[in-house]
Structure formats: structure tokens, C-alpha cells
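Hey everyone, long-time lurker, first post.

I ran two proteins through the pipeline my lab uses and got sequence/structure pairs for each. Pasting them in order. The first:
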Amino acid sequence: MAVRTRLKQLTPADETVLALVGAHLGALASRDLRVRCAEGLEHSAETWAARKRGLTPVSSSRWAGSLTKATPDQWALARRGQLAHVQSLEAGIRTIAHRLSLPVGAKGSKHAPGGYRSRREWHAKARCLHVLEDRLERERADHEAGVVHVVRGGKRLARTRHHLADAGLTASDWRRRWEAERWFLQADGESGKRFGNETIRASPDGEVSIKLPAPLTDLANAPHGRYVLACRVGFAHRGQEWADRVAANRAVAYRIHYDVDRGRWYLTASWQIPVVQAVSIAATLAHGVIGVDMNADHLAAWRLDVHGNPTGPPRRFFYDLTGSADHRDAQVRHALTRLLNWARTCGVQAIAVEDLDFGAEKTREKHGLRKRFRQLISGMPTGRLRARLTSMADQTGITIIAVDPAYTSRWGAQHWQKALTHKNRKTTRHDAAAVAIGRRALGHPIRRRTAPPRAHQRDVHGHRTVQADRRAPGREGPRPPVPGPRTRSVPPDRGANAGNQNAQHRSGRSAEHESWQQDSLPLSL
């Protein structure tokens, strides 16, 4: 859990101290990251202790602990990204090699792409294959040797230095961004310590103070080498939860960062959410479920009772995934907040979503020139939305159920879209898919039984219980006698037309009762 607030009303002296501390610790972080990357796979507890002992005299023991904790995390993140890049190259090489092995113009199937459309495209892809194979060989060698490539401050910002005109920046503007991104002002929490953090401390009344490194202790304005900021902070989101943790001296991690574009300082507080106890599926689905179909621009949701019947009208929660990453993330969080509030109002304790992953569906080789379709599935935040929904639902006591996404849209449209549409409500394909997802989570089948032909629904010539007109002749007469057994009155093995029941393959009867029938052979004496 992470919440952020702005450090308002900072004095020029406060901003100067924060910049000096961030620049000094950022230089130490860069040095420590270089040492850690040089170690590669030879990292051990002894090397970590040696790095911490080397950083302690030029900072402090607590700052040295934060630095040596953040450096392995950054190295591990680069390592995971390197492995993901290797797997992506392998998948691309397999797809291109498969398409090159097919004749030019060969059509593909549902699960595999076909050949390339022309000899020119085939030749270009053959050259691309050799480039990818060389790149894969280098990445594999680096991964096996434990070599990672990390840029503190971001590779994108580093490359922007060579394209300042395109980015609309000057050299001084880029330098300010670069220095601010490379500052280091973050510290992990410590349970049992005062207010949960001794390095960057925030009290319940909003006072913020930091532990100054050893070379900057002459700037302290409080005892024990600390500097107290002139501002007071408060968290609008989950502020009470943060205050309870701080008052109980529970661990809270803090990060101070500077937004160059806005010229503002921010404080981010984060802590770990405790593990939730598992709940049985029967208790979770006791009050029904809400099926949710994720789409490119909205969430289609429908509430189902415990028997799998849709109740009430469908709901749609829209979001806009254009613009910056922060805007897209805010749109997703807003839509999920409205979904969870509606689920809590309905009294439902479970939300069913599809276990979607378009990681293998976004490649150009699989879908060719279907650019709009690739943009559509690339824009659907399936993994991010599911992770966000799981973390947000944990705080409200709502369980998230991930179901198999196979045929939910197709069967929902086939069996539920028309059945749930009437003159006052038009059911969309996405609404029907939400019903299919909810029924699969409840354990009910999605497909409904096919109705018999219209003529046979009423015995071809009308319903059997239709009454004759009172003026019809012979209305009061008895029915003509029908030979043979009658339903519910004569047992099936009696009557004139009962027939030989042994000649039919029924349970408990044999089809052959002749004298020459061979008896069953004993399996043991």
C-alpha cells in the first residue's frame, strides 16, 4: 500500500537541504550499484556486509542499510527484465522461422500464422531473423554471466539528451531532470522504532524529519544530526490507517522525490498489507457473484444470484486509456472503485473476472498487418487491471475469482444476449459475456438447452390440454379403447401389446434367454 502527499510551504533552506542530501546519497547509490553489477552472480552475504561497511562512514548506518537494500532490488529488477527480453526474442524467432518454412502466400490457421505474402517480405524477414538470432546470443551470454545493463535515472531520459529539440527541452532543463531522477531519498521502515522509521520520520501530527548523512550534519536543526522540515503533512487517502501504524510504531517506508515540471516536493508512505486468510468458495458464493467482462474502454458487469440467474440491470464502468501512464492508471483505479462500491452495496462478496493474458497475442508476426486489432488487445490492461482489482478488493473483503476465458464471449452472445434483451433493455455482447463469466464462477454451465422445434413444443397440432368446444359433437363420449398398456396404469411388462421385454436391452434384463446361452465363466475356483 502506498499513499502520497505534497510537502507544502517548504522554505528555501528546506529545499536546499533536501537537494544536497539527495545528490550526496544518489552518488553513493550509483557507486554501490556499480559494485553490485560488477559482482554479478558472485554476490553473497559477505560482499553485502563489505559494501555496507564501506558506505557507513560517508553516510550513516541506517542510510547504508537503505542503499544496500535498494541496490540488489534494482539489480534483480534488471535481471527479470533481461530474462523477459530473452523469452520475447525466442518467441519472435520461433514465429518468424515457422512462417519462413511455409510457402509464400500460404494461409494460416486459427492458432498459427501462415506464410508471408510476397518474396520481398520473405527476404526482409529472413534478414530480420539473423539479426534477432545475433541479439539473442548476446542476451543469453549476458544472462548466463550475470551481466545486466542499468541506467540510474532511466534509459529513456538518457537517450533524450541526444534529441533535445524533439523533446522540447534545453540542456539546462534536461540536466535538472537528470539530476532529480538520480537523487536518493528513500528509507525502509523498522517495526518497533519510533514512528516506524528512524531515517525518514513522520509523526502523527505531521512533522517530518530526516537523518542527515555524516558529511552534512552541520546543516542539522534538531538533536542527533536530524533536520526537521518546516511543513506539516497529512494523507488524504488512508490517512487514518497511516496514523494508526505510526502511533503503534509499525514499519512505514518513506520516499521523498522532486517533480521538476511542477516544481513540487512529494512524500510517499508505503507499508505491507497483511496476508488475508483464505475463504472457502462455498461461503464466498453464498450471496451470488458479479461477473465482469474486461474491454478496451469499459467494464461490463452483471450481478447473478446463487442459481446463476441475472438479477437487476447490467452495469458498465467506463475508463479512458489515452494520455499519460498516470492518467491511465487513475482511470483504471476510478473504474475499479466504482465497481467495488457497487458490489458492496449489493451485498455480494465475490467478483468473477477472466484470467486473460495477451502477452503472446500482441506480436506483429501472429496478426500480420491487422494493426487495429493489435492496438486493441495491446490497449486492454488485463494484467494491470486484475492486479489492481485484487489489491483494492482485499481492503473491502471482496474475493476475486479468476475463471477460464474460453468461449465466454461467444457462448454468452449465443445463449444469453437474445434471451436477456427486451423492448426496454438492449443487452450487448459484453453484458452477455459477463453473465457467462459469472455462471462459470458459480459452477453452472454457460450453454442453455436447445429448445425443440416450434411444432413439437405443442404436439404439432396444439397443446394436449386444450378443451373441445361445448358444441362439438361427441364431446361427452368416452375415448376409444386403445389396446396395450396405458401410461401410469399398467406396468410396462403387462398388457396385450407389452411385447417381449427380454428382447430389449433394458436394465436387469438380458437380450438372450435361450437354452444354448453360455454361462459366465468363473474367475477363480
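...and the second, right after it:
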Amino acid sequence: MPVSRRQFLASAAALAAASAASWQTWRHLNRLPPVSVRRPGLPPGHLLRDGMLAEGTDRLPSHRCGTLILGSGAAALSALWYLVRNGHRDILLAEGLERNGNNAGFYDAELAAPTGAHYLALPPPESAYVRLMLDDLGIMQNGVFNETDLVYAPQERLWYRGKWQESLLPQQDADSRRFFALTGRLKTARSRDGRKIFAIPIALSSQDEEWRRLDRLTFAQWLAREGYRSPSLLWYLDYCCRDDYGRGIADVSAFAGLHYFCARGEHADTVLTWPDGLAHVSEALRRHCGLRPLAAPPQEDEWRFGRPVSWDASAIRIEERQGRVSVWLRHNQSGETLCADAHRVVCAMPLSVAAHIVADAPRYGLRPSESAPWLVGNFVLNRFPQERGGSSLAWDNVVYGSPHLGYVAAGNQLIRAAKPPRTVFTSYTAPNHDTPRNVRRRLLDADADELLALAAADLAAVYGSGFWRHVERISLTVRGHGMAVPRPGYLDNPIPRSRPPLLFAHSDMSGYSVFEEAAYWGAEAAKRILEAV
């Protein structure tokens, strides 16, 4: 069954204490490996939120330009890709506060790992933009995915009752068989309006009220109503929701809960992945589009690039006026600020950020939204730790009953006949024992040791104190606004008014954070630009 808040806190405290104890033991006996903590977007993000960076921007001269894309996450790069694919190349992309956004990667010499999104499920036919993109990138050819891009076996395992098992579902029982029989039917089911009940992107899902009323309940309420009582099934469903939405079954919409299992079709269990996660796709899109960095924009009144270029800058103010959009850009390193007066703008940043910097934000339907914070830990190891019970390391490794989300061995993609000498294990946790706001505040205020205790909890539970003997370096990433939470009612959240010259593109417009949704909104924004040109 889903754990109560008190049980969660007790479990989290015990695991954190065990991790901290093993860490402190190793710390006192040996030299402390380097620990770095990244909080992408801070402090500029908070200054931006509070309007501190936009002061005095009215006095800056403006530079006219063609198409400006704000951000470099999945939606921004999808918009870039679609524009370039259709012959539109006079584009300036402002990187935003972090290159590739939540798709950013971690790199250490020959090693790579994700610091955010780490896989892409095989896209169903409805995800037409993603399939076309993957074909352009050579990841898919004639409907067939490259074997080297598919996750290698073993794909997943669960630490359950002191040993590993292959399936993340703790055990099969009557409830789990009934649940997966239902979702199996719903994967291809269509409603009275002819649409698939659950499709991805979600904008293509059925609008039939018979199914949309699921959005009035939490997933936990629906499961209880339908008579699902199995503790192992409920734990598994709770884990899946925390993994994809940042909150558990007691928080997310029943529609979102079922959508997770039904939208991607029959091959949802197979995924595409790379050592650096979705940073691989983001970097491939940059190369494919011929995106080139600018040391600094030209000083002329009118910018004509003639090709896609990027500048390491963030938008600090956006104002639509007289058929154009004025965007004040601030260089992320030097603080240099200038005004770009663009014919067309794709605002591909989180909607909660846009709500703070777009002039007259309510006019566009922009408003702050709820998001779940994340903590990602990358542990560089000088050798692979000893596995218990003869079990083979899997790509995804999960601990039953843990408040954390396990760890990924992204380098599993590189293992052939023999293991490499060094590797990276990447842990994920999305604490949901308190409100997102309170969790976010604690993660942002915590010191390195406190964050490490959380990030290493599942690794310590599996490998014990001996794990630390192999740790060479640790990099922790706090994502204060990691992903949108699809709480009940999210299907009725208004979509921002989006039309030239100012268009919005972000997975937030779907109410939850996955690559397919971001790619859809990015490509749709680009399509509207092409229609207007």
C-alpha cells in the first residue's frame, strides 16, 4: 500500500541515516572524494523571478532579427529542428540558464551520464514529430530503431526482500493481473469521438467526458474505487508515478496514472537510452541543425545570421508590441544585456518562468504552476562494486519500499565483452513527503553532506559501506523545478494563447514533463511560424 507521511518520513530518515553513517565512516577513514553541488539557474533564476535583472533595460538600444528561440530544452531544440528541416535558417537561439535544460548531461573524461532525463520510450505512431526527428538523426531507419540505441539487457531489476529480481513489480497477484489486463486493452482502445483514449502527445487523446472525468480523482482514489488492494501493486504504481511525475498516486490525476501505462502502446517497456541520457539527442539535434555558438551578437541595428546560431544568454523581459516582440537578453557569464526586436519568438521556457518575465502575462493565460523538485547524483567509480548473489548489474536498479527512485547505470550501454575500468552510477530522488515548495526550499538550503545522504541512500542500501571504496568523484544536481505535476484537474488547465509573433512551447502545456510532449509543442510552434511567413 502507499506509505503514509509518517511511514515515509521514518523510512527516509532510516535510509538517510544509514547512508550518512556509512559515508561518515568512510570519510573519517579515507580522504574525502570531491563533492560538487550544482543548482542550475541559481541565483540568476531567483533574481529573474523577482524582476531584479530587468531593471534599466528600457534604455538599451534594440537590434532587429528574424526568429528568436528562448531556451535550449527539448521544446526549443524541437522548434529549431522543425524550422531548419523546412528551410528556415535565420534563427537565434538563446540558450537559457542551462544548456539543454532538463536534458543536460554530466561528463568526466571518457565517462558520460545524465543529470536529468535519461531515456525515451519507443514513440508510438501518434508521436509523429518524434519519429520523424529520430529518423532524421539516424536513430530510427524505415521504422526500425538502431540496436545500439535500444537499452541493453538486463534492463531492470528490483531489490526485494534482500535479493534482486528482474521485474520491478514485486510480485504477480490477482490485482496486478487484473490491472495489466485492463491497461493492455486500453493501449489501443478508442472512445466515441474516434480518438485513442490515451495518446501521446496528450493533445491527441480522446475528449470524451466519459474518460476525462477520471481527471477529477487522484489515482489512489480511482484504484481504491476499483478495488485494487495489493500492497505490491500499489507500491509499484506509486513508484511509477513518482518516477514520471515527481509525486505519487495520492497526488496525481487518475487520468495521468492510467495514461502512463496506456499511451505509448505495446512496446512501452522498451526504451532508447545513451550513457548521457537525452543529452545525446539534444546534442545530436544541435549538430543536425548546424547550430553554431556566437561569441557575441553583432553590433549592427539589424541582425541577419542566415544560419542557426546560439548565444549563451537568458531572456529577462519579453514584451509584444506593434506586431513584433522585444526580448531583453542577458549573457549568462558576462551579464552583458541587449534588446532583440524579433519578427517571431518561440518562448520555450517553463510557463512558470514565462509568467514572471512576459509583460502582461495574464493576457496570455500564463500563471505560475506547480512543479516537483529533483535531486540527481552522479557517482564516478574507479571500479564496479561487487554485486550480491551473483546478480548482473542492470540499466535501471530500484529498491522496494524506498522513498527514492533507485539508480541508473547509464554506462551499461557501453558494456560488451568486458566491463570498462571506470563507470558512473546515477541516482534519482524526488522527495514527496512534504509540499513541493517545502521540499524545494530544503533541497536548495541543504549542504553537500545532507544532499549526499539522500542521493546515496539506495546505493548504500544495496552495496553497504563498501560502496564508498570505489567512489572517485561525486556530482549532485538539484533541480528545484524538475517537472510539472499532473494533479486532478490538469486536463482543464488553460493552454497559453500562442500565435505569431509570440508563441509558447513547453511540455508544461501538457501538464507533465516528457520529451514527446515537449517535442510536440516545439514543432507545433515552428509549424505556425512557417505558416505565417
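Reply from user beta_strand_b:
Welcome! Quick read of the second one: The chain has 15 helices and 22 strands. Confidence is low (pLDDT under 50) at residues 1-13.
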